[in-house]
Amino acid sequence: MDLFKKLQAFTCKLYTVSTTTEDINTAHHQLFCTQCGSSSLASCHHASLQEHLHILSPVEHGWARNDDGQLTVEWMRGSPAPEAVLQLLSCNCSRRCKLLECQCMSSGLKCTNLCKLQTCDNQPQEEGLGMMIT
Question: Which domain of life is it from (predicted)?
Answer without folding.
Answer: Eukaryota
